[in-house]
Structures are given as structure tokens and as C-alpha cells.
Please model this.
Amino acid sequence: MVQIDGGDESSGPFTLRWGFRTRPNVVFILTDDQRWDEMDYMPTVDSQLASHGVEFTNAYVVNPACCPSRTSILTGRYSHGTDVYGNHPPHGGFGTFTNTGEDASTIATWLQGAGYRTALVGKYLNGYGTAAVPYVPPGWDVWDALALATTKQGDTADGYYDYAMSLDGSLRTYGSSPSDYSTTVLTGYARQVVATTPDDQPLFLEFAPRAPHDPATPAPEYAKSLGRAPPVRSPSWNEADVSDKPSYIQRLAPLTSRQLKSVDKFRLNQLRALRSVDDAVGQLLADLRHDGRLSNTLVMFMSDNGLEAAEHRWTSKYLPYEEDIRVPMVMRYDAATPAPGEATSSAIALNIDIAPTIADLAAISTPPMDGRSLLPALSGGEPTPRDAFLVEHAGGKRVPSFCAIHTNDWEYVEYATDERELYDMQNDPYELENRAGNPSYSATQADLAARLETLCTPRPPGFP
Model:
């Protein structure tokens, strides 16, 4: 039983620390493959979330792939705590998370046990396909999940048109008309959740649209928007000299002009696809305000991982570089920050912090987690100090398994191939010059290697 301000919920009316007589609501918005710098093209997120809350400028994921990131969000644990290191079995995907019983203890089950109405609308985990449609994971009162059959090559449907959904375990298919556009459909389901939740019951809603994941199909009304959005042209873009990089990067030829043109087009379509998500944020906020819930609702926005746009000659994710692990993260909770005005926090914030933050807000007991609560930042304070975090990933044919330790000043990576990378993040933020093996940095490398040995235990699958 949760003890709150000298009383508990079974003893009648109670007042939480924020001054409300019901637990706070939580709306968690999770985009798919959104780079940290793409939030600049979401005016509603900027004006109605960031300008009324806190933007975390050093936000990261601890495994740069969809399924591991999403399981870390649900559990507050690193991949070595969930055994979900990648998007596919045997150590990844929906199957691993379910078969090991890990889905029986998540932020959804904890909140449901505390009396919350819990709802997932959108993408769950890679591998939750049509064969798994009857399965509704523990903890969810409302289950409106995209049901995308997957293969080792990726999703068989693009997730924007001609897709299926599991509606509380029943299959429904959607076609290719404008009204079937998935972000529009998912927004409708999410708004229905808000509208049908009893006034006296707290709500936890995870809204997880497909956008801006490949193929980044924009809605018809945005198909030709943002024509002047600048392409990515960072110093690491189509990196000229990769002789100091690991062999899997050295094997990559510079991208051709045709390939680069395709990358630019895809990037533009990502921004266009995000416009519909931005609209959805505005509609959900309006509904929460109309129902009198907004003042007692924590609204959280982030992406499950980043994506490279030809940096280091790479056009995907899965790597330990900044473009892959850095993500947008914004939180708004008016009870903690009642005066509008954008604030930023430079504290390192991670996806494993989402569940602890929600649990802290709701004042519920949970199993041990690797993350920490970010709530202090919402009222102008600082979360519990963190000077380093772990990034881990089980590789495949293209990328070897790796462990990395990331601090404000350094990133050090160890690969299963016995290759190493060391970057001075203050003077080389684009990770152009690998200092590993350089005698001038031997002491720094030794210190980081020792710390990584402690953090990365056990090692991801694929290490000798």
C-alpha cells in the first residue's frame, strides 16, 4: 500500500504533494527514429511543451535501437537487465521481452496496480506482428497497438498505410485512403482514451506513433511542406577520412551524390511526417485542458533513438555515435512549473529515467531500476548527479557488439572485435578523431576502461 502525506488511498480523500486529490496523470509521447535536432520543426512541441516545461539538452538512449530502447523505457533498466539487446530474437524483440516474463513488471503494471487507467496507442515492440495480435501484455487496460509483421529485414508494412492494429486483442486492418494515415488514426484513438477516462481516475497514456520512421511517409497535407528545410551538413557528414574508425566503418565507401540526394529527401520527409505528430500533441493538450486534467498531467515527449543522415558515412542507427544515441526530450508539468517560460536542464537524462520519473510522480513503489527520477528538474532543481552512463548493443552482420561509457567530456567504446574508440566530446563533439591508443590519452583511456568494466557486466551477446 502506498503511503502518501501521512495517509493512504484506502483511508478516504488524500492530498498529494502537488496539491491535488487524485494522482497525477501521465501522457508519454514517443516518436520513432527521431533525431534530437528535428524537434526544431515541431512548433507545437516547442510552444506548448518546451515553453511551459523543461527541455533536457543532454538526453540519450542507452541502446540505439527501437526495441531495446522501448523496453528500457518501460522497465527503467539497461539491456543487460532485460536481455533485450536488439530488435530480433534470441536477445531482442517482442518475443524475448515476453518469453522471459519481463513484460509482467513494467511501468504499466505498476501504475495499473495503483489504480491508474493505462493505455497504449501505437507502436509497442518490434516483432509484435499479426501472429501476436490476440496477446495483450500485462498492465494495459486499453490496447490499441500497431501490429506490424516483421522479418529480419524489417517491417513488412510501412506503418503509415495498409497496416493492421490490435484493438484489445482483435485485429483491424486499415487501407490507403487519406483517413487511414496512421498518425491520424492513432491520434483519434488517443483522444478517445482521454475522453473516456473517468474524472476521478488517473490516466497513464503512452502515445507512440510510427513517425518519422522509414519510409517517413508524410500526411497528404504536409507532402510538400518545409521545402526550404536545410539538410544535415555537419563536419562528420560523409566523413572524408575514416582511417581511425573501426573496420566496419572503414569498409564503407563515401556516399555518392545520388545516395546523398536520397538521404536529404528522406530527412525532409521525416520532418514532414513529424508535422502530423506535432498536430497530435496540440490536440491531446487541448483535450486535457478541456477535461480539466492538464494542470495535473505530466506530459513527456521523446524519441526511442536517433538516426544518422550520412554522418560517418552511415545512414541508419545502432552505433555509439551522438547522432544515434542523442534524442529530444521535453517534459511539462504545470503543478511543478506553474509559470510559463522555457527552461532547460543540462543534466544527463536517459530513457531509463522515464519509468523512475513517472513512479516518483505517482508516489508508487517499484522494483529496483537503473534510472533515476528527473522530477527535480521540473521545479528548477537538479536530479541526482550522474557523471557517466552505459551504452550497450548486440551487433549483427554489419555492426559488432559493443559497450561504451559516455560522460560529458568523453566517450570510450569497446567492440567485440577488440577495436577501441575514444573521443574528446568537449573539443571534438562530432567524433572525428579517435584518440584510442594515443599515448597522450592513455591515462584517460585506462580510467574509462576500468569504469566500463564495472558498468558493462555482463557483456552483450557477441563478445568472446
In short: The chain is about 25% helix and 20% strand. Residues 22-379 form a domain with the Alkaline Phosphatase, subunit A fold (CATH 3.40.720.10). Residues 257-290 form the longest helix (34 residues). Confidence is low (pLDDT under 50) at residues 1-14, 150-154.
